[in-house]
Write a structure and sequence with these properties.
Blueprint (H helix, E strand, L loop, with lengths): L4 H25 L21 H13 L8 H8 L19 E6 L2 E6 L6 E2 L4 H14 L29 H5 L8 E2 L2 E2 L11 H5 L14 H15 L3 H10 L9 E12 L2 E6 L8 E4 L1 H12 L3 E2 L2 E2 L3 H7 L14 E2 L14 E5 L3 E6 L4 E6 L6 H13 L2
Antiparallel strand pairs: 1-2, 1-14, 3-8, 4-5, 6-7, 6-8, 9-10, 11-12, 12-13, 13-14
Helix pairs in contact: 2-11, 4-7, 4-8
């Protein structure tokens, strides 16, 4: 029977409505842990893991605790003692023992340690910071990551021939070589070379932005400060409203800066947060909330039908950077020289001092969180987990 023109219009509208709702329908078929509820569990065998091999991986994580002091005040001061004028500038907290979770298809298949203990997470914080940058990009507050930051932050932070060339991309992939002082910290004091003198470090020749990777927390904090100027709201508030509350995170996490990292915007005093715990501060969070954050990325930014951060940003954020293929936009990759055995090279991960990691495998819908693992053994641990996947 031939449909009338009106029927064709209705049919077309219904088809469009169906297409639009496909992502929501698919998301609703997936499991997402609800706020305040027990995380639903599945046995390793039920989701295709070899339980014996998986138990070996868990035992490995528990038996290879990181050697850093439990008193993180001492651990931080010892680890960075060679840096000129290094001192604690923000809060710290005594750490717990090894803990972790392995998530498959959203379900908890393995866990160890105290999952509810709030601990420092050091440079894992950078991946949260990258996410706030992604929200600004999604919102159009940052038109392009190739834009010069001086066009957004014009208080002199990016003044001068060198700093004026720095783009958002450079700050995010740690290739800016931004030079200056922020909240009493000079860029050159952060992780200086093993060779040379203070004068050598202070008066070094600067690298052209975008050409040289250098892990540097002062420059990461410059990114946080710049995003604060773009959002004109504290970044923890942005993260809470846009990401952490929608994914059902607890109310126990905190993101702090330094005692001196207060600034005034629109007549309001706000703290600029740090991108790690190098001088104290950064993200304090429990293992369960870390796993929720990882699951959001494993689900391509969609949480139970709500696209919290765009898949376009995630693709951009985890793509290997030219200055360092092992590093993306504050996420680590396996696209460079890293060798993690049978671990697939499409995974990406957040990493922090003391052995804090969130591993995300979007293709297989797997999230692995491990805390206080000997950092040098993360590849071996991941290899053991994926041996359990590959020998089911």
């Amino acid at each position: 029977m031939k449909l009338s023109p009106v029927s064709n219009v209705i049919k077309g509208a219904l088809f469009c409505l169906l297409i639009i709702n496909i992502p929501t329908a698919l998301a609703q078929e997936l499991y997402f842990p609800e706020f305040g509820a027990e995380w639903e569990q599945r046995s390793a065998e039920d989701v295709g893991f070899n339980s014996d091999l998986l138990n070996e991986a868990i035992s490995f994580a528990m038996e290879n605790e990181n050697s850093v002091e439990r008193d993180l005040r001492l651990a931080i001061l010892q680890a960075f003692s060679r840096e000129p004028n290094h001192k604690l500038r923000g809060p710290t907290r005594e750490r717990g023992g090894p803990a972790g979770m392995i998530i498959k298809d959203g379900y908890l298949i393995a866990s160890w340690g105290d999952l509810e203990r709030v601990d420092m997470t050091f440079s894992v914080t950078k991946s949260y910071l990258s996410t706030v940058a992604g929200l600004a990009w999604d919102d159009g507050l940052i038109s392009s990551t190739n834009d010069r930051v001086e066009n957004y932050v014009w208080d002199g932070t990016f003044a001068g021939e060198h700093n004026s060339k720095v783009t958002w991309e450079h700050l995010l992939n740690q290739s800016s070589d931004w030079s200056g002082s922020l909240f009493g910290l000079e860029d050159w004091t952060d992780r200086p070379p093993r060779e040379g003198t203070v004068d050598d470090w202070r008066f070094r020749e600067l690298n052209e932005p975008g050409t040289h990777y250098k892990y540097n927390d002062v420059r990461v904090n410059v990114l946080a400060y710049s995003l604060l100027h773009v959002y004109r709201n504290p970044l923890p508030v942005v993260l809470k409203d846009r990401i952490m509350d929608p994914i059902g995170a607890s109310t126990t996490w905190r993101w702090t800066g330094y005692d001196e990292s207060w600034t005034e915007i629109d007549g309001l005093k706000m703290q600029s947060v740090s991108g790690g715990g190098h001088h104290g501060g950064g993200m304090f969070i429990n293992t369960l909330d870390q796993a929720r954050f990882g699951l959001l990325f494993a689900r391509d930014g969609n949480w139970n039908g709500n696209q919290l951060i765009s898949s376009e940003w995630i693709e951009k954020a985890v793509a290997p950077s030219e200055p360092n293929p092992d590093y993306a936009l504050m996420w680590w990759t396996l696209k460079g020289d890293a060798d993690w055995g049978v671990t697939p090279d499409h995974i990406y991960y957040a990493a922090g001092f003391g052995g804090n990691f969130i591993l995300v495998d979007q293709e297989n819908d797997i999230v692995i969180v491990t805390r206080w693992l000997d950092s040098s053994l993360i590849g071996e641990f991941a290899d053991k987990v994926y041996q359990a996947v590959n020998n089911r």
